[in-house]
Amino acid sequence: MQHKSHLGKLLIAHPKFPNSPFAKTVIYIYQDDSVNGTVGVVLNRISQTSVANMCAQEGHSFYDTTTMVQLGGPINKSAIILLHTDDWHSTNTASAGDKLRISSDNHMLRKMADGTDQPAYWKCFIGASVWMPGQLQSELDRPIEHGTWLTCKADEAIIFMLNGDNLWHTALEMYSQQAVDHFF
Question: Could you give all domains of the chain from N- to C-terminal order, each with its CATH number?
Fold first, then answer.
């Protein structure tokens, strides 16, 4: 069976999604292939740690004390991942879909610390959401009444401007509009 890539898409937990840690989540898929599987970050789960506090633990002073680290998923919770616009790069930056990049290295937050060298838009995550090859497609193929993932094209405004349940509700509305547009 041909692999259908979901790179650059949003996974939106269906309102009937089973009661799980992924209920009411929106995940941005930044890697998807038939060999390595699928990797993304939960966009709407905020941690209790600010980016400034995380930087302070590494001995860096960060210019913004209000931006919080996001909980990207349950896998590799020690990994720090930066999802950002394509106008910036660090030593380990890769394409993450249309006009977006993903960075994960020891230099990225140090580069951004004083606020002069940073992408236009970004979110910082700890951990990721990971599926084995074929696993996500199997979940997407489940009957809708069992609660499944909905998929739609990503939008930078949703990714970077919203959080929490507001992001989930807006993503559901965007999915619905894209579904209607597809048929008419």
Answer: 9-183 (3.40.1740.10)
